[in-house]
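Structure ticket #2291
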Amino acid sequence: MAQAFYQAVSSLPCELASLLSGLPPQQVQEITEIRLRALAPVVLHQACGRAFLSREGKLTQTVCGAFCMTQSGMQECFHALCGYSVHSMQEQINQGYVPVKGGHRAGVCGTAQRLSDGSYAVQEIASINLRIARDVTCEIPPWLAQPPREGILIAGQPSSGKTTLLRSLVRQWAMQCCVSVVDERQELFPTVQNRPLDCDVFSGYPKHIGMQHALRAFAPHVLVCDEIGGQEDAEAVCRAVNAGVCVVATVHADCLKELRTRPTVRMLVQTGAFSKAVFLKGRASPGQVRQVYDLDADG
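Resolution: structure written out below.
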């Protein structure tokens, strides 16, 4: 677990990376996020709370003596996380994040300037949230152990374990049938080494394009997507269902009302591709199922 933390921080500039890399393994193995804000202390988040990084490279519970980010330091972190090639990351930056080697992801917040081609250049970086990706799995409910024949939406709050459950399900199902995964943000299976057998991973593809390629050339029994939403995704889901493929995807929603009222999620539900909605318990119990709704009966 600690190795994922050290890998993620290695993408930061030398001074900050050196301080964070010096933290002992027993302290970093449960860290999920590193929050950087201009003119503010570096904050490290764990399930049990948060801590600050001191100027000596230690964890502390007090702001006094904490390592604070300068505005120029924020800009340097942004460029480092982009591999010093901001232009090559422009499409992801437009969506508010930067993919980091190893499946980690850095959310980016700053002042946006709209360019002539419709894209955005982010200037005066104000906040960065570096999320540590870990190849974590969880226990699978018995009724989900067999590959599904009808579509499933896995729903929950941020950090409720949607990706963790989806990763666990793919590993289970791939032993029994052909599974295609569209991993746009490279969080499910960031490296070739950790991908299960009989599983084709479309890594970094926009979801609607990855789904289209999977349907055309790989004939999956189950098509899996993480964090799905939007008109293009809904249309791609419809094409998959028309081709006889079962779609399993995650969405941000904490209750049935959100599924019905949030426009991007509602479009997915209205495709008729999903027969069940699986709601997770939340941050305190990542990957654990709280409730299952039959969307066909409810609709």
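Closing remark: The chain has a mean pLDDT of 90.
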